[in-house]
Amino acid sequence: MPQLKQLPAHLIGGNFLLTETSPDLVFTPEDLSSEQRLMAETAEKFMDKEVLPNCEALEHQEEGLAKKLFRQAGELGLLGMEVPTEYEGLGLGKTSSLGVEGQMTRLGGFGVTVGASCGIGMQPLQYFGTEAQKKKYLAKQATGQWMGAYALSEADSGSDALSLRTKATLSPDGRHYLLNGTKMWISNAGWADIFTVFAKVDGQHVTAFLVERTFPGVSVGKEEHKLGIKSSSTRRLILEDAQVPVENLLGGIGKGAYIAFNILNVGRFKLGSGVTGASKELLKVAARYAMERKQFGRPLASFGLIQHKLGEIAARIFACDSASHRTARMFDAVMETGETIDSTTPPFPRGLDEFALECSILKVACSELVNFAADEALQIHGGYGYTEEFPLARAYRDARINRIFEGTNEINRLFIPGSLLRRAQKGRFPLVAAITKITKELLDMPPLDSGGEDDELALAQAFLANAKRLALFGAGVAFQKFGDKLIEEQEILGGVSDIISDIYLAESAVLRTLKARKAGRNWSVMADLTLTFVNSAVGRMEQQARECLTATSQGDELRAHLGIARRLLRWSPLNAVAMRRRIAKRLCEVGSYPALVATQ
Amino acid sequence: MRREELKILVPLKRVPDPDTRIRVKPDGSAVDLDGVKFAVNPFDSIALEEALRIKEKLGETEVVVVTIGGQECVEQLRVGLAMGADRALLIRSTDGLDALAIAKVLVAVYRREQPAFVLMGKQAIDDDSNQVGQMLAALLGIGQATFVSKCELIENNSKVRCGRETDGGIETVTVKLPAIITSDLRLNEPRYVSLPGIMKAKKKPLEEVGMADLGLTITSRTQVLKLEPPVRRKAGVRVKTVDELLAKLKNDVKVL
Closest Cα to residue A251, out of A150, A129, A339? Predict the structure, then answer.
């Protein structure tokens, strides 16, 4: 691979672990333009008026309804935001589409229909297609006339995606590839007009193809009976000598892995940032019920354990939302440089690949948050929550898939430290130098001290600087011990991954709040949300650090390592009870998450 | 034959979003606007929608949106442009003006723009005053049709036939243009602000004009003394018999 150009430090994937980031360099929800907000409002109104009143009918897959709504969304411009204007899109970036996607996923499975088409379905074509392919297919999808789908998984090939068996063989006349195989769990399969299908040319080179539904030899199986997202179509895609014209081969023979994985990076970002819209909706539903429902003569919202739930969900949303916006802007900034990676023909934008690690962090954290939010919102509803009379039972089922698709959370957890190691090996990321430096520092001298500071946000920043050193130190110790066999120590990798994720999320929340404070906004609620998250993250990090270190070293060495971890994670616990109560009280006053963090 | 261009003036007001929970400041001096989301007054959106439908039907129509207020009102003008208005006008004012003052500013705007007619919301959902349209017609000495739920241009666009929602039913009136027409809820359902519309709006003309440029020095004659949230409705009680009901009405509620 030719040398990649050096990007500014804050635009390098994973760089947050190595340096401190200035709040000025971080994009926050407060920085959204009025146009961007207005776009999200259009999506909100469309959901309120067209989609949510039809939730039941969608859930029973009423003939033609999902496709009709999909077209309507296309006409409003909601499906092609990131598509270039020459293909009838809006030519905007992720900072613009984020708010719209957050609305589409609020409740029910319509967001999955939209995401499977506009995200992983259409983006392989957008980023890896030739001019002619894009002319033929992209505008149709950007405007909602056609629905797209992504077909990678197979019965025996899920997480181990590249073990797929679907074959592509050139026809004797050289005009078609004949595809044979069955793709499993394909979102939108029942309705899609075009599929991005991955198959092995000559049984070995993973390659992507654009497959129209009406090509001879293409059919779909029966609707799967799923736990949730019942309103989205999920079927097998069956390819029996499916005739795909050679001009529909995408990105070159054997380039399928680049396409599959880079598109999954974007898909993970979109899943994470989008599904946080569902978490916000669940928090609203939970808060409003908690205010209305009275027991012992008092609204539920007046009880501490209910406030605990509301406060905790809100704090986690704040962290995830801050990290999503931060990542969206970094992504757009790298896309705007026009930098490409020429592993495929034509080359693909570097932006797709640069923030793979951050995308995985968001995928894991936001999908786990929405499950937590659905679970606790249901719990607040008590017996009512368990019935179909309220939207929680469905939301609870719908949330579950998010930990599975777009790469399971387990695969993503392994990927987070794994991608750092791979980049280090390729010379793209100075991991080894950083680990060596930190290990030496730590053995020689005490960790950074925040001194007598009483500004809690500054203390949180100092804590996170030490936590970064801990993550690198832990990774270094594990690598020293296990070397190339570290890949078999999944529990350790998972632990390191969780520490790295908490650092990114917490830091994004801290930087957002510092930026708001600097801009003279009312930042007191933001500070409570941030510090609640940081305070909980400290406990999680301690637990992970202990587990990882005890699984790595023994005896005196272990004691020394644990001592370092203890010193690095020094943190004066804050009164989280009081903070969550304040958050919950304010949330109930203003009625929703967006209003909770809206400041002048 | 080229039809002569018709100009419709649509005033828009920036108001707290109807879904926002309104909180009065503890001292009762004003509504607490910290963190409040703003929107175009829904009745004004209906008026704009009607103007846009007329434009789509007739072609050769210019729809101008106008608002009076600070820089923040540009947001609502952009919404109007994104819906499909051709041009926007911001009359800069930092004072909170009452209905008559607003009507006087609109008189100046009307004289400057010379529209065929004005389509506006019957009232704004923030102060619910329902006065500006009527005052504007009176000050200009032209006709008015208020609470309109149906609107149709007739006789070569020289008149508008309107259905008015009254307590007794729908009253049909015809007004000669120019006139002031104020929209009721059921006139139409406003379109979505499409994303391509939002992109196009950025390139449409938005002019800012000061009060002095219009030759105006206007002050409000009314003053808001105090705001109070409505008294919270108390929970009802269930009575077992008619006698008990009568007793409660006599002794507790004291309405009999």
Answer: A129
